[in-house]
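Report of the visiting student (M.T.), summer placement. My assignment was to run the structure pipeline on a short list of targets and document each run. The first record concerns Glutamine--fructose-6-phosphate aminotransferase [isomerizing].
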Amino acid sequence: MCGIVGAIAQRNVAKILLEGLSRLEYRGYDSSGVAINNEVGVRAHRAVGKVQALKDKFEATPLDGKIGIAHTRWATHGKPTENNAHPHFSGDDLAIVHNGIIENHDKLRNQLKTQGYVFKSETDTEVIVHLIHQELQSEPDFLQAVKNALKYLEGAFAIAVTLNDQNHRLVAARKGSPLVVGIGIEENFVASDQLALLHVTDQFVFLEEGDVVEVTRDGVTIFDSQDVIQERPVHVFNHNVDATDKGEFRHYMMKEIYEQPKVIAACLEGRISENKVLTDCFGADSSFLKNVENVHIVACGTSYHAGMVAKYWIEDLANLPCTVEVASEYRYRKVAVPKNTLFLTLSQSGETADTLAALRKAKELDYLTSLAICNVPSSTLVRESALTLLTNAGAEIGVASTKAFTTQLTALLITAIAIASEKGALSAIKEAELVNSMHSLPAHIDEALKQDVAIKKVSERFANKHNALFLGRGPMFPIALEGALKLKEISYIHAEAYPAGELKHGPLALVDEDMPIISIVPHNSMLDKLKSNLQEVAARGGELYVFADKDAELQNAEGVIFTEVLKVDEILEPIVHVVPLQLLSYHVAVVKGTDVDQPRNLAKSVTVE
Ligand code: M6R
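After the run finished, the C-alpha cells were exported:
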C-alpha cells in the first residue's frame, strides 16, 4: 500500500528519500515520486513502476535540497500513471504526498473547480493540496493553513506537505493511516513505516489519531486532535538485525519462511513454563480468561485463516463457542453479542483498515474485553486494544505472510490453552502434555524445512498450471485455504480450497487430468475419511499431490505424487504442515518468474478499505 517519507536536514535529502522509498517497496506500489524543496522552488520527479526508475531519473537530472517528501503509490483513484503519481502540487511551491482515501473528494473537487483550480490528476489527493493552497490565500501561516484544510476532509489519511517559504519546515498529519516521526541529530523525518527511516535513525515518535506535526531541523511539535501541543514518548527501534537485509536469501519470503523456528521460539519465550501457559503474558489483568464464555475472532486474509484454525482449538480444548469473521463483513453488519464474549483481533501489521474499524465498532458494543494478537508493538491495533499478545515475528517484508502466520497460530494456541486451563476445561496433566509439545515446535519446523529440496522438485510440475484445488479436513481445512491463498498471491495460479467432504457437492465437476489437487493428510483422526475423498479424485483422473506423514501409509502411485511430512502431535499439525505449502507456493512462483516479494496489485499493509 502507499508509503510516505519526508525529511528535513542540513544535508541533501534526495538520497535519504530514495533509500526510504526502496525500504517501503515491500508494501506494494505501482509508481513513486519525490519532491525536493530548495531555493528555486519545489521540484519533483515521478516514475511508473519500480523505485529504480525514479532513481534513474535522479541520476539523469539530479535534484538537490534540504527538505523533501517522497511517496510510493498503490493506485486507488486513477490508474498507475506518472500524472497520478505523488507528489501532487498546487502551484509551483506547494506539494503533498498522501496515504489513504478521501471519501468526499468528488464534492471537494467540484467546489475547487468552480473556484478556478485546474486538476492535473485523477487522484483524491490533489483536492487536499488545492484546499491547502486555498487556505493559504487567507491564512499566511502554513501550519495553520494545513490545519484549516484538514477540517474539510472525510476519510482516512496520512499526509506530508512542503511549502517553499521562509520558514523551513514540513507539516504532516494523520487520521486513520499510520505515520511516525523519526528523530535525528539536527535533522528530522516522517514516514508511514519506521522501516523507511532505519538508515537514518532508530528513534521514533508514533503519531496518534488526529495529530498534526510541524517538523523542522531542530525539533518536532505535535498538536493533538484538539489542537493542544503534546509531548509523545520517543521509542528506540530494537530489532537487532535490520529486517530489510535479505541476507543469503534470494527473496524476503524465503528468508522469512526459514526464520520460522527462531521466531516461533521467540513467540513462546516467557509465555510457557515447562508445563503450563504463563497467563501473565496477557498483562497484569488476565481475569478475562476465567470469565470468557464466547470468543469472536475478526481478521482479514491470512490472519483470518489463523483465526479459523483457532476456532477448532478453542472449541476443542476450552469447550467454548468460537466464531470467526472477516473484518470487512463484521464492520458493516448489525451484531448480536452474547454475554461475556471476548473480541479477538488478529493482524500482522496492526494497521489493516477493516480490522481497525471492526475493533472500533466492537468497543462500542458489550464485549467482555478486546484482545489483539499482533506483530507490531507500535501499531494502532495494539494501542487501541485493551489487551495484547505480541507474536514477536520481527518485521515481515514479503507481501505473502509466512512467519507472521505461524507465530499467530502459536500465540492462538497459547491463548486457547490459557482459556481452557483457567476455565477448568483442561486438566493439569493435559495442559502439561500440550505445553510439552509446544516446546518442540521450533525443532519440528526446522525438520519440516528439510523437505525444501523435494518440494522444489514437485513445484516444477506446476509451471504450466492455471488452476489448483486444495483439500483439507478439520483444522487442516483453513491450512488448505492458506495454501491456496499463498499460491494465488505469488504465482497467480487460480487456486481454491475446500473441506474435503464438500468435494462431491460441486467442485468434483472441475476435476480432470489438468487439475492438480493438493492435500495435506496428516495421520490424524480424519485420515480414513480423507483417503476416501482422494479416491474420488483419483477415479476421475485428477492429479493428486499428497503431503502425508509416514503413518498415513500413502505412497507414490499413478497420478499420486507423495511428499512425506513430519509426524507431529495432532494439535501442532496446522502450524507444522503449513510450511510445505509455503515452500510449494514459493518455488512455483520462482518457476513462473513472478515478483515473489511484491506480487502485482497487492500491498503488505492494507490501510484502506
Ligand atoms: O496485517 P494483517 O494481518 O491485518 O493483514 C491481513 C491481510 O491483508 C494479509 O494477511 C494478506 O492476506 C497477506 N498478503 C497474506 O499473505
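Residues 403-422 form the longest helix (20 residues). The mean pLDDT is 91. I thank the supervising group for their guidance throughout the placement.
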